[in-house]
Specification:
mainly beta, seven-stranded mixed β-sheet, four-stranded antiparallel β-sheet, 51% strand, globular
């Protein structure tokens, strides 16, 4: 069955960096666009970044442009989100999405 498993979240100080990973299985990862979403407490889930199947095109929410980078390794069936210059407002549960499915999420907390 389709599985998306996120990892790499944690507690980081403002200005710090984290790299999230999403390991995919149960579908042909290389033919699907993939996305990262996040949901902060009391807020709706929002799109953070997306990437085409080949990795040739990416899109970002205005709030993360220049700070986050989405990438993928189709040989490893893995999606990444490199997050830098983190801010307290980036605190949220981060989810990957692909093939119509969601992962379980990984918590990112930005706090001093």
């Amino acid at each position: 069955q389709v599985q998306l498993v996120e990892s790499g979240g944690g507690l980081v100080q403002p200005g710090g960096s984290l790299r999230l990973s999403c390991a995919a299985s149960g579908f042909t990862f290389s033919v699907y666009s993939m996305s990262w979403y996040r949901q902060a407490p009391g807020k709706e889930r929002e799109l953070v970044a997306s990437i085409t199947s080949s990795g040739g095109r990416t899109n970002y929410a205005d709030s993360v442009k220049g700070r986050f980078t989405i990438s993928r390794d189709n040989a490893k069936n893995t999606l990444y989100l490199q997050m830098s210059s983190l801010r307290p407002e980036d605190t949220a549960v981060y989810y990957c999405k692909g093939s119509g499915r969601w992962g379980q999420g990984t918590q990112v907390t930005v706090s001093s």
